[in-house]
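agent> fetching stored inputs for the zinc ion docking request
agent> found them:
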Amino acid sequence: MLDDSEVQRVLAVVAHPDDVDFSAAGTIAGWTDAGIEVVYCIVTDGDAGGHDDAVPRSEIAPLRRKEQTAAAACVGVTDLRFLGYPDGRVEATLGLRKDLARVIRQVRPDRVLCPSPERNYARMGVSHPDHRAVGSAALDAVYPDARNPFAFAELRAEEGLEPWTVREVWLPGGTAPNHYVDVTDTFDRKVAALRAHESQTGHMDKLEEFLRGWLARAAAQGGLPDGHLAEAFQVLDSG
Ligand SMILES: [Zn+2]
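agent> prediction call returned; pasting C-alpha cells
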C-alpha cells in the first residue's frame, strides 16, 4: 500500500452527491490536511433523490450540486467534476468508461477511490445499481483505459490527454475490507459535510449517532482502540 507521503493527488469517483461523504469524508479530510489534492468526479446529479414532493424535480440537480460543493468545502475539496448522467439509470457503458478515463488523464491521480462493483449482501444500500455500475466503469477506466494509449485513442489525438497509470484503488464498502482509517479527529467535519446535503439528511435527527455507531463498529473490526472511529476500505494495488 502507498504511504500517503507518496500520494500527490486522489480522484474520488462516485455515483451520487453525498456518496463520498457517507463513505470517505473523514479519510479525505485527513488527506487534504496532509497536503494531498483531492478531486471529486460525481457521475449523476442525484436527481432521483430527496424526499420532498413539493420540490420540482428540475430543481433537484442544481440543488444537489450546490450541496455537494458545500460538503466538499468542509473537508478541503474545491475541484468537483459533475458528469450529469441520469440518476438511477447508470450503466457501465463504453461511454462512461471513456468519460472516466478522460477525467483520470486530466487529474493524473496516484490513487482512485470508487465504489465496489460487487454486490455486498450484508449491506443493501451500499450496492445501489448506480454504485455497482460506476465502480465497474471506474475500475475499467483505471485498467486498462486510462493507461493504454490505444484505448479511446481520440482522447490523445483530439484532446491531447496522455495515458496515465493509477497506482492504487480504494473501494469503500468493498466486500473484503483490508484497511481501516482512523477518522476520530475528522469526524466532526464528516458530520458537517453530510449536514450540507440538507435535501438528503435534513430529516435525519439521529444522523450523528448513526454515523458514530457505524464508524465505531468499523474501528472495532479494524482492531482500533475503544472509543475510536474508522472508515473501512478494500485497497487494491493497480500499479
Ligand atoms: Zn449513492
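agent> quick read of the result: The mean pLDDT is 96.
agent> awaiting further instructions
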